[in-house]
Structure formats: C-alpha cells, structure tokens
Amino acid sequence: MTDRSGERRRGSGNSWGTRRRPTPADGADGAVEEMADPESVARNLCLRALTGAPKTRQQLADLLAQRDVPEDVAEAVLDRLAEVGLIDDEAFAQAWVTSRQSGRGLARRALKAELRAKGVEDDVAATAVMAVDDNDERETARRLVERKLPSMQRLDRVTATRRLMGMLARKGYSGGLAAGVVRDALDGVGAYDAAVPGFDELDEDALLP
C-alpha cells in the first residue's frame, strides 16, 4: 500500500524485510537465542536441562562446554544457579544414594563410582554414602541373593556360588561380604550339593564370570 506521496508505507511489527533468520544458536523449541548474549544462552540451556531431572554442577558445565559457552560466562551462570538452589550436589548425591541403593541394591563402592562419574566431588560422595551402613549392605545383598536363588535350583553349588558372587561383585559388594551372604543362603537351601571345599579361602576374582 502507498500513501499520497507514492512512497510505500512501512507496516508495524515484524515485516518480511526485518525478520531475522534463525541461526544455529536458536533453541530447539524455536526461541531465538543469540550467542551475542551467551549468558542468556547458558542460563536457558541449564534451565532446560534441569527440567527433566536434577543435574550436578559438572554435568551442566560439560553441557555448556559442548555448546561453546565461554568458560567465564558458564562459571557465573552456574554460581548463580547454585545460589538460588537449582544446583545442589549434596542434595543430588543424597537422593542418588537413596534411589540406587533401594532400587538397584548397589553397595557403597558402586554408589561412589557412579557419583564420581557424574562429577560429584569425592568428599561429597563419601558423606552421601554414609547413609548406607554395614548392616544395610548385608541385608540388601541377602535380598538380592534370595531373589536370584529360585532360578538356580538346577545348578550345582559351585556354579550357583560363582554366579551369585559375580552378581554381587558387579553391584559393588566386597568379596568377604558376598562370600558370607552366598554361603549362608546356599546352606539354607536343601536342594544343593555339599558345601564347596575350602569355600572361605576361594579367591573372589576366580568366582566372577
């Protein structure tokens, strides 16, 4: 449309002539995120990541590094998220230990390894796994073995011992604890062969599959 002077009148809002083309920095949801404002990009990336599930500071730092967010900007954003409680490695570690110990039956050694892999500092991980004591580990190992026993009724004792020990070892249980729990469980089942000679002296590594 033209006015009386013959000049084309500019429309209000976004016109075809002023609309910005999407860039690689645009978010997956279509929102425009220009790297000219890396702090905003970093903040939005973190908030989206935290929407799905809690994350450790290191996990978010790795995400920002992958998206080429400057390190100083990433640190500032992560510090701010920690200040408002959106990043809390101690709470993350405590929740992780509770969930994985009860749900997967993992021992303290395995729990520490998983937390370390997620970037939780060793002292924070060590404090979190203190919620699991020796009695908790033994009881959990006993339940794991009891659930597995019905599928091993046709096996000889040596084979059953090897498989049960291997299962507990993969979940982080020490050889001594695993050996005691397995021995007690097999002794209580009458369908198995006589006790394995020298069971207490067996090398736990030799029993792994």
Automatic annotation (TrEMBL):
| Highest taxon listed in the record's lineage | Bacteria
Q: Where is this region: Disordered?
A: 1-37
Residue ranges constituting the RecX third three-helical domain according to the UniProt record: 136-178
Q: Where is the composition biased (Basic and acidic residues)?
A: 1-10
Pfam families for the chain: RecX_HTH1, RecX_HTH2, RecX_HTH3
Q: Which InterPro entries match?
A: RecX_HTH_1st (IPR053926), RecX_HTH_2nd (IPR053924), RecX_HTH_3rd (IPR053925), Regulatory_RecX (IPR003783), WH-like_DNA-bd_sf (IPR036388)
* Residues annotated as domain RecX first three-helical: 42-81
Q: Where in the cell is it found?
A: Cytoplasm
Q: Where is the RecX second three-helical domain?
A: 88-128
UniProt keywords (A-Z) are: Cytoplasm
Family membership, please give it.
Belongs to the RecX family.
User: Which purpose does this protein serve, as stated in its record?
Assistant: Modulates RecA activity.
Q: What's the protein name?
A: Regulatory protein RecX
Q: Which organism is it from?
A: Blastococcus goldschmidtiae
